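Sequence decides. Our protein:
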Amino acid sequence: MKCPSCANTLEAPAPRCPHCKLSLQRLDSKFGLVPAHSRFLTDRTGKLPLDEMTQLRAALRLFQKKFPQSLFSVFLTELPRGTSVAEYGFWLANRAKFSSVEKTEGENFNLLLVIDLAGNAAALTVGYGLERYVPEQDLKSVLDDFANGVRDGGLAAGLRVGLDSVTRRLRELSTNARAANFETASG
């Protein structure tokens, strides 16, 4: 994994980054209490109309039906100026309980997209179980697709484009893994 603060590679899970000394405890001090949130979609900004939220929640539920081992949560916020959305997303992914089943370390296949509307920034955090399968370039590609969708059709459209992008990538990974297992079993 990469440290959300200094971007250096480190072994996950690590109690703190050996390079910049970032730890969840430091982030707890920085961010305070975990904000109220819902399982699939939280809009702390009030920018999404209710009908769009309903449709997006339905799309996120459908994602979970397609990938029952994963929960994809979206968290919209307006962070104070100068706050790192990557640090906030990492902290929130590790401290908030989006899933009803607490999965830790290699068992965690969840995804969290944090969007900071005030800072015009977003971060996509994946659970430790997905890190070895989803390269950083894929996460960047999903964020680029989301940004292009927002630019072309607004926030809700961007969220749908980002969700479609993640779905495609996980399907590709799943297909490749099944093919590799088949070759191993028959070889």
In short: The mean pLDDT is 90.
